[in-house]
């Protein structure tokens, strides 16, 4: 049985501010308690409650909408449609929610850090809580700098009348983020820190830092960052984690807590505490689902044949039977739109317009809006790909790197046949691979392995492929949406209008 983090959201009237609460799509809704500051910080339980409140900022199932800002997904949700069709502006809801959400997290973390010592914890216990909170503060700053560039760096708790902070350079904020993660790693490395499932650990800190260094090393062509990203990934790979034996089950409730997961956002399987992921993704035949987020043909075409060869040149590929002789993860990620599918007792009917995700779908659900999958924030499969991409950029291809790609491909075939048996996936051979051709394989692998996990926007962004891929129509079974991306403007998002009014030290980003 899973041990859940009990998250309590506390309203601090004396401070004039609010610890951020759950959004509508979050499923844990616990009582809000009004307290004065004098009545708080008296015990470790108070500290635990305040630290747990930060976990409300951890990515949840709504994160998958970010994939709809890339070529692989189509969204019927207005906020992401506004951006994918070229309408991004300083009033866009995703823009505003990203800005306000991250600064709310930063404010909560700063309040915690400036008050926690009042509780009189031992140095060891204090460090373990500080390391968790520092992780959230660092990540919030990184999300801001990635999208907005120069932003205010806020590492103290500000009163309401102290919000007019000068922006810091992107490089300054990045240095702060990396330094914070280093300190968090020290604080969480105590041998007696044995947290429950779902809590930030040193491995989660390493995974975040590896991801950030890969992103930044790619953007700046900095081999030292890429090497450090790879070193962190290698340490995680030696840390006792292992690929889950079945790709489908990894994203269903039966895969929760498995050895591949480094950090997950817990969605408790308790009455009244559910989310609607199945209804968002499923076809209408599944509990009258909505198909809000659906794969595009661009994603379908990314899956190679069973031998790892692109379908454009594959002698095995037949457009009349597109699911035959393909990488098995295609069939585990997307339903075959050419036929009705009987899936473990649930019927998925071809609707003739959209493709539908099979990934994340739990056929055991018995009613709409009753999904409780945990959302995977970091997992070993991504860490493999961080390591492989970083090392290829620094040194080029090698058999050791290719073995990791082939291990993911092999895992994709485990239990993937219709009768539950394995599909043999031949390994890709090293002979003839160059750094460029291996880079293409790695990028394809990231796309198909991590599809619908909400991280691919960052990949397309850092690879500078959004202007190429997001100026083409989104196509499912039929054309779905005309898309527009204006480069270089759209690679940096506009600062929200309200923030420019509130803080005259800020200047709008170019083009807005």
UniProtKB/TrEMBL annotation:
Keyword Signal among UniProt keywords: yes
RagB/SusD domain segment(s): 286-512
Superkingdom of source: Bacteria
Gene3D superfamilies recorded: 1.25.40.390
Annotated keywords: Cell outer membrane, Membrane, Signal
Matches recorded under Pfam families: SusD-like_3 (PF14322), SusD_RagB (PF07980)
SusD-like N-terminal domain location: 89-214
The protein, known as: RagB/SusD family nutrient uptake outer membrane protein
Lineage: Bacteria, Pseudomonadati, Bacteroidota, Flavobacteriia, Flavobacteriales
